[in-house]
Amino acid sequence: MAIIAQSRRMRRTPFSDGVEAAGVKGYTVYNHMLLPTVFDSVVADYHHLKSAVQVWDVACERQVELRGPDAARLMQMLTPRDLRGMLPGQCYYVPIVDETGGMLNDPVALKLSEDRWWISIADSDLLLWVKGLAYGYRLDVLVDEPDISPLAVQGPQADELMARVFGDAVRNIRFFRFGWFDFQGVSMAVARSGYSKQGGFEIYVDGTANGMPLWHALFEAGKDLDVRAGCPNLIERIEGGLLSYGNDMTRENTPHEAGLGRFCSTQTAIGCVGRDALLRVAKDGPTQQIRAISIAGDIPPCDRTWPLLANGKKVGQITSAAKSPDYGTNVAIGMVKMTHWDDATVLDVETPDGLRSATVNEKFWI
Amino acid sequence: MAIIAQSRRMRRTPFSDGVEAAGVKGYTVYNHMLLPTVFDSVVADYHHLKSAVQVWDVACERQVELRGPDAARLMQMLTPRDLRGMLPGQCYYVPIVDETGGMLNDPVALKLSEDRWWISIADSDLLLWVKGLAYGYRLDVLVDEPDISPLAVQGPQADELMARVFGDAVRNIRFFRFGWFDFQGVSMAVARSGYSKQGGFEIYVDGTANGMPLWHALFEAGKDLDVRAGCPNLIERIEGGLLSYGNDMTRENTPHEAGLGRFCSTQTAIGCVGRDALLRVAKDGPTQQIRAISIAGDIPPCDRTWPLLANGKKVGQITSAAKSPDYGTNVAIGMVKMTHWDDATVLDVETPDGLRSATVNEKFWI
């Protein structure tokens, strides 16, 4: 197993000192920034996430800020999701596509006010796309990456821990809503959201200097809750069907292929880039789509696509996979052609260690 | 030292199988792709690079291809370098800036023909910027990432090795020129270029399937030349003053700050984005600039910026540093304010291990 070579280019986060003190064992790189992948072991982290509470350094969810009179117009250009009903204080999951309907990112947008938005991005330099559009259309908007670093608190004890640090009012935040909460005199957006199905919050930490004080405050307040440093967990996120841009879908795929057609109101999202292509896709339907897939037997780590075969012919590919302790199978995410995407279809998957049996599932595990 | 977590998102390259068989020990991530950083040790790799020949997997230098009637117009929009005199078969190092003159990338552009260009990019999703501009300006051009993966052959024996595989005509390729050469029936662009000062070539390998056959052919042909798998070497590239986007300069910096003012013909590069800002910068001159810096004593790996101090006041920062066996000092790259950028200025540098003495140098080491 190769080590990760660190450099300024792999940006540290406001919480890196805490992550290292907690004994991080693995990293990935996400938006040119370090993202922890394992602390104890992926399996031990998984059990703990489901039973207690974890603090996650997800500063790599960088923000693209839109500010100015044309901010709302630009935001609607970026996504086929209809934003007309969105209110300040709401978070929307917004597929972002290019002119052909190919996905460029799948971020969460936060509407701070009519003329100020944050886009909390997945792993691509969406800033450059947004700046290019704003420049090309001569929009009256500032586009930049502010000094905002999300810190997630996830797990069944998340409400209790957050209430101890931010007050009981955090318990009232509804799913995919955010409010403004004070930490040591700094007002920060706190949303009920996060990249797990265990419940919890994301704190949009304002100012690098406030990162470690908040980190310490959370660990201090949560000692009796067995709070630990954690990170997005490969097994848990596959069980829950949480997609990973760059893994499960890329610029090659439309939102409809990624199973995100329900977020595309292409008829009414007037002005969005890629509208023509997506109207066609919505009419015809996708010819392949993401599915939950179980795989039998032992499998290696999934570091590349694995072909899905029916009678030796390729009908799709696996893009993420891991052994699930709770479900007694290998849980996986794959893209499958419509000819073979029905529930309970049995296929072969070609792993680097040989062929395994795979079964298409209608639903994810939770 | 943390391991790197592999996933499809950290894309493997056409040469990854060869890199692994050669015993790669460290990786970084560059354009969402694996880039080796060490094979034997950074010091052993360094000595070998300077004395023999290495084959480098630099597939992470992804290509942005511009194709169509507006390709040349778009290319000139992207850079303040005047491209009017550029001929097919030439490579140009082209700073790319946003509307404020902030650097977005520092790639090498290859002109294939008037209506077809490749931009061999440093570590940012330049594709999104280029696509955004092309869309906003409604240009008649296709912008995409083709299946082209650079493989570098670097070191004093590079000419000999390349001649054995591609024929003696490769010896005649001039610096920053490229020609078309056949490998097993596939025509590939071969340029005299690369991210070292030891001389050599970059082969723009056309087609993933052709990667390992070429890799094997080079190693087979170079046995008696002690050819080894290598990678951009941290020490050697600092000695040679080869900048690294994301390390030594970012979107915060202008080309002039990065010492790249000589590549900006802003007066004549009509139509380039950022022209107004850069005309101002060219008139006033930058207030800080990149310098070669020697640092005394022992230093840790440079994984973040280190402040440069004069009488306790910050006057710049170190962005890359490594101990040089050949020059008997720590070689470094830093950004220094004009008040302290003169040759032989002595400063303090604040490393995580404590203060060290630093000296500003007029020139890099080779």
Would you kindly provide a brief summary of this structure?
Chain A has 366 residues and is of the alpha+beta class. Chain A has helices at residues 16-21, 42-51, 71-78, 126-136, 158-166, 211-221, 234-239, 275-284, and strands at 3-4, 26-30, 33-38, 54-57, 63-67, 91-93, 96-97, 103-105, 108-113, 116-120, 142-144, 148-154, 178-183, 186-191, 200-206, 228-230, 288-295, 306-310, 313-324, 329-337, 346-351, 354-361.
Structure description:
2 copies of one chain form a homodimer. With 366 residues, chain A is an alpha+beta fold. Chain A folds into 3 domains: 16-62 and 147-238, Probable tRNA modification gtpase trme, domain 1 (Gyrase A, domain 2, 2-Layer Sandwich); 63-144, 2-Layer Sandwich (Alpha-Beta Plaits), CATH 3.30.70; 287-366, Aminomethyltransferase beta-barrel domains (Elongation Factor Tu (Ef-tu), domain 3, Beta Barrel). In chain A, 19% of the residues lie in helices and 33% in strands. The first copy, chain A, is built from 8 helices and 22 strands. Chain A has a 6-stranded mixed beta sheet, sandwiched between helices. In chain A, strand 14 and strand 15 (200-206) form a beta hairpin. The radius of gyration of chain A is 21 Å and the shape is globular. The first copy, chain A, starts with a strand and ends in a 5-residue tail after the last strand. Chains A and B meet through strand 1, strand 2 and helix 4 of A and strand 1, strand 2 and helix 4 of B. Strand 1 of chain A pairs parallel with strand 2 (26-30) of chain B.
